[in-house]
DNA sequence: CGGTAATCGAGACGGTACGTCGTGTCTTGAG
DNA sequence: CTCAAGACACGACGTACCGTCTCGATTACCG
């Protein structure tokens, strides 16, 4: 589980690292963010809760956001092990997209994940380094699944061959993310379905 | 220009308020966020730079984010005075959308606005109250312009009548925002054009 | 009660200073040094005990030693108010010196004063600035009393007129201090008497 | 050269000890105290400079003061080898004392020795165990030289037979130390001479 | 048109957290 | 076993800001 290595003067020897502390820090960080939110979570608080010296956190991470990101990645890695290396492919692209987008809606609405995900995303919006890492490790792998499914659909003749899947997928995740991040309108299954319809067939009138 | 009024015990008498200080605070806030970023901008710093007592800030705003939001709204109000109460309507919907989206791309890429816009958006992602205000005062009015243009296109028979403009517009702004906030891919005019094409006509193959 | 003004960037406005805090800090500092010793007394501890922010200490003093010195001076000033502006002068120089030196022995042996006095002295040995202040405010005024008494004795013909009182007085306080600081031998009344005997006949006029 | 043995649970096997490390630690300790002072010298710093593990220091000494003391004793032992097992005895007590006291003044004023000597003395003032060791190993042997010379003077009839040499010697070293430690007045040869004059006639036999 | 009640600049205050440094203990691998 | 190296839990450092709280000194309404 690679970490956002601290950029300070001397690099510590990672072979001698305490796995026990690493785990305790992750657990404490996630728990605290869930309980009091990211803003009121402090490095000091994480250290205290993890039964760890502050220095042990600063030795391995440059900021509390980096800690949380690694904790989150660790969590996601655990969850990813058992499952979903690919989007469903029943042959019906619209149905498959509806399934996935509905699942995404449910996940985004799940209060357990909301706080840390929002915190991390917001931090990434403002901190390019952290954001890049967030995208590279978490977001892009997910988007790649969409791209793959769309490519399969192209092979099956369900999607225009001149369409760039990497761009097309944003028609689905872009609006969803927009609603969720900015809270402009409620995120519902109905919205997911509507989105699939619009994006798949466009909004222009047919002659 | 209404402020996010401080919610503390006694409401101050706004008629006696110093306009001079208000302006100085806005200027200082925007300047500091531009120079050192939102995170390293402090209320103390704003006060010092504005030549103002800290209490004068705390009297009128509940947080530095609220100050920045009002400063930003003030800025936007000034900019909005001269112009764009509506999206262009040349009769060619695709062309008009390309124009607008390209302009948006340019704006988002403008380093002058980047820091404060990102800061406010990120803050809104995490703080629902601030986010709501941000959306209500800044985002929704802009989205309404899209909705209006799409409704006109429906009247002209260029957009399917069963399409909900408020949802459809997210096909354009959603992906754009997604790229900008998360920095997944560069934001270019070519992308804006591609997006208009995809969203307008869908990605599904035609039989 | 002048303080060892902090040498940091901006000098605080001493007219707005909280007398309440000043007193609480002195009390806490003296209490802690008495209870756990100087080395294990911390600025943090003083602040906590005094119910004061750390910054309030750092605003007015550059180090814990400076705090303790001022606390000590404040104490001494309080004690000095009621009393001893001069050494006793019964006409019998030897007896008077014995009285004073015995009292000094008792004071140095008093466990209540021992810890802070040793701490302060040791700190002054190593920190010239603090030491100078210690000497100027506490030690020299006391030594001046000796000098005055010796001058009176010269006037009375009990001390050789060519003797420099400021040097002569060190024959008494030097050895006493030496024993106390370095703990070479026990400090007793007998020693005080012996010292007076030895030193006095060196400077006493011969008939 | 005996060390202030660490008092921890298991005593290490001193026969397997690295002489190389011991010397390196002494050198590093003395160098650091000379360069940055005792307070800012750290065990970690000594270890790093000596190219030694921290544990190697903690294995053999209980504190940095103890390390410095041993380093100092080691130094003094080297210096003592070539010389002065006794005070000069030309038959003229006053002259001999002046010689010795002037040499002491020079030594105390030597900036090379000032930092470590002050540091050790100050530490001994506050730490009775260390102080006792300092006195026993360094101070008392020197004082004994004075006592011996005074006894010789008594035998020669130059000093009153009822005088206790161990007390009398403090008339010389006490005031000198007082001036040096507390920096009340400059330490000069003239002062040394004056001191001898004052003190000596106090203890000299009367014709 | 002077009294008075507010806001204003300034900044001290009690706090919380920061990120760093040093302590003394413990562990690892080499000799 | 000792040693160099250094990670660890811990505690304190001195600093930066927080949001609250006095302080005069304007300043603008009101009687």
TrEMBL record, chains A, B, C, D:
| Gene Ontology molecular function, alphabetical | DNA-binding transcription factor activity; transcription cis-regulatory region binding
One Pfam family, short name: TetR_C_11
Sorted keywords for this record are: DNA-binding, Transcription, Transcription regulation
Against InterPro entries, the record matches this protein to: Homeodomain-like_sf, HTH-type_TetR-like_transc_reg, HTH_TetR, Tet_transcr_reg_TetR-rel_C_sf, TetR_C
According to the entry, DNA is bound by residues in 42-61
Using the UniProt annotation, give all residue ranges assigned to the region (Disordered). Answer: 1-20
Q: Origin, by domain of life?
A: Bacteria
Question: What spans are recorded as compositionally biased (Polar residues)?
Answer: 1-12
HTH tetR-type domain mapped to chain residues: 19-79
Sorted alphabetically, which SUPFAM superfamilies does this protein's record hold? Homeodomain-like, Tetracyclin repressor-like, C-terminal domain
Q: Cite the PANTHER family for this sequence.
A: HTH-TYPE TRANSCRIPTIONAL REGULATOR RUTR (PTHR30055), TETR-FAMILY TRANSCRIPTIONAL REGULATOR (PTHR30055:SF148)
What is the protein name given in its UniProt record? TetR family transcriptional regulator
Its source organism is: Streptomyces kanasensis
